UniProtKB/TrEMBL annotation:
Pfam families per the UniProt record, alphabetical: Amino_oxidase (PF01593)
Domain Amine oxidase: 72-423
UniProt cross-references to Gene3D superfamilies, sorted A to Z: FAD/NAD(P)-binding domain, protoporphyrinogen ix oxidase, domain 3, Protoporphyrinogen oxidase, mitochondrial, domain 2
Biased composition (Polar residues): 1-12
Provenance organism: Carnegiea gigantea
Region annotation Disordered: where it falls in the sequence: 1-25
Listed GO MF terms: oxidoreductase activity
Protein name: Amine oxidase domain-containing protein
Length: 438
């Protein structure tokens, strides 16, 4: 049985990560599709530029493909090249692989770069990853929603049938809403992933209303839950992604790898030859060049080095960076008006484990419609390895960037709200533990 309140004291702010605007999930999934279309492994005459001015150093074998960006997209592409026997070199600007999927170790705590969940049903992940060595730790399949001063359970009716029955009359939606959730599960499970991604799309909010979900479940559950996944409480994200995530949640478990979300990236990288990955290697330009009948791609690094590849380049970086690198001769002009990127802020706090009254590995959602917290959870109740012995790690996520709010004010506001939730009884004691990144 899941308890419905908790208290916690003496929280120290560990870390606050402000994700920059381009971190909108659906935006990036979309980007990858667009990048696949845009990248020309074999330069065409339309995009070819005649030049004789540079004498670039080739990668050892000129047939070596160059992968730019060592996030999940670049690592997956490299894995595919490796298994296909295509020589490649992965260039990563930062000091480690993983991009947004990295974990920092700070004073014995594992701090993922933003709140992330690994859903085991992701089809590509099933192909690429060895789940058993990730030692995945499961979340409860459902959530506890803070509304009207109390927590109310929303449970997956298949995995937690009796919990779900017990929640039929709670205020997080009507009985009809809860039946509709069951029907949604059936509906998405009947669709293949191809059907999901190629069917007509509407904003999630329209989809939910068209199915007859009440405003109460939309505001109290869908906005914090799916809003938290897509950094989009307005639920303007495409219905295709809603269906895909709903299906993945129905088929798989919500988990965290024992050693942090970054272990997913580390595992992918560990299967690649170590000399095929170059860290601290920021690419600053890409040119497609031609001399007589020969084509190659020339890649310039920040340190002045130039590499050329006759096979081509896979560009797997964030959208603004991709646009910068492709600007000029390569960028296919995109005249669509872009919406501003979506952002999130994640704050970590530590507490004494003994002060956490709940041992349930559950996600807490803010369904109250008030305040700035969207969701929180005790990471160490999902994976005890996220904290040193005796300590608990508290992860709090906000939607938006809050650039105009000073860090201290933001922390104070979050702690105040957690106190109202009865999650933190005493305010911040000190802030000696540093922010790890950004
Ligand atoms: C806070 C947060 C929570 C999320 N939660 C989830 C979740 O729960 N479940 C889920 O499935 N997805 C989640 N996502 C989305 C997921 O993290 C991303 O879709 C995915 O990591 C994107 O991978 P990528 O390789 O495309 O890009 P990135 O991870 O951004 O990788 C791009 C890489 O390119 C490098 N790079 C950039 N410019 C250059 C250059 N010029 N030269 C060389 N290298 C360069 C960067 O350093 C970086 O390593 C979340 C994202 C965020 C931000």
């Amino acid at each position: 049985m899941i308890s419905t309140s908790f208290s916690l004291s003496t929280s120290d702010p560990l870390h606050r990560l402000r994700e920059p605007p381009p971190s909108r999930l659906h935006h990036h999934l979309h980007l990858h599709r667009r990048l696949r279309r845009r990248i020309s492994l074999f330069p065409t005459s339309a995009t070819t530029r005649q030049t004789t001015t540079t004498t670039p150093s080739t990668v050892k074998d000129p047939k070596t493909a160059i992968v730019i960006g060592g996030g999940l997209a670049g690592l997956s592409a490299s894995t595919k090249l490796y298994s296909s026997g295509v020589p490649f070199l992965l260039l990563e600007a930062s000091d480690g692989v993983g991009g947004r999927v990295r974990t920092d170790s700070v004073d014995g705590f594992l701090l993922d770069r933003g709140f992330q969940i690994f859903i085991t049903a992701y089809p590509e992940a099933q192909k690429l990853l060895d789940y058993s060595s990730l030692n995945l730790k499961k979340f409860y399949s459902g959530a506890k929603v803070y509304f009207d001063g109390k927590f109310h359970v929303v449970a997956d009716p298949v995995r937690h049938f009796w919990d779900a029955v017990g929640t039929l009359v709670n205020p997080i939606g009507t009985v009809v809403d809860k039946l509709l959730i069951g029907l949604t599960r059936i509906r998405v499970l009947q669709k293949s992933d191809e059907e999901i991604f190629y069917c007509s799309e509407v904003p999630i909010i329209e989809l939910l209303r068209s199915w007859g979900f009440s405003e109460s479940i939309i505001d109290r559950f869908f906005r914090p839950f799916f809003g938290g996944i897509f950094f989009d409480r307005e639920l303007e994200t495409t219905s295709r992604l809603f269906d895909f995530i709903f299906k993945s949640l129905a088929l798989g478990d919500n988990t965290l790898p024992e050693k942090g979300i970054g272990e997913i990236s580390n595992q992918l990288a560990s299967k690649l030859p170590s000399d095929s990955i170059r860290l601290n290697s920021r690419v600053i330009s890409i040119q497609i060049e031609k001399q007589k009948s020969a084509h190659w791609v020339s890649v310039k690094l920040e340190n002045g080095e130039e590499l050329r590849s006759e096979t081509g380049v896979i560009l797997a970086v964030e959208e603004p960076e991709a646009e910068k690198l492709l600007a000029g001769t390569l960028l296919v002009s995109d005249k669509r008006v872009k919406k501003p990127g979506r952002s999130t802020v994640c704050l970590y706090f530590s507490a004494e484990k003994a002060q956490i009254p709940s041992s349930d590995p559950v996600l807490y959602l803010n369904g109250s419609g008030k305040g700035i917290i969207n969701n929180m959870f005790f990471a160490t109740t999902v994976a005890p390895s996220y904290g040193p012995p005796g300590k608990a790690l508290v992860s709090v996520s906000l939607i938006g960037l809050f650039n105009d709010v000073a860090d201290d004010d933001l922390v104070a506001q979050v702690v105040r709200e957690l106190s109202e939730w009865r999650a933190v009884e005493a305010l911040l004691q000190d802030s000696k533990v540093p922010r790890a990144i950004n």
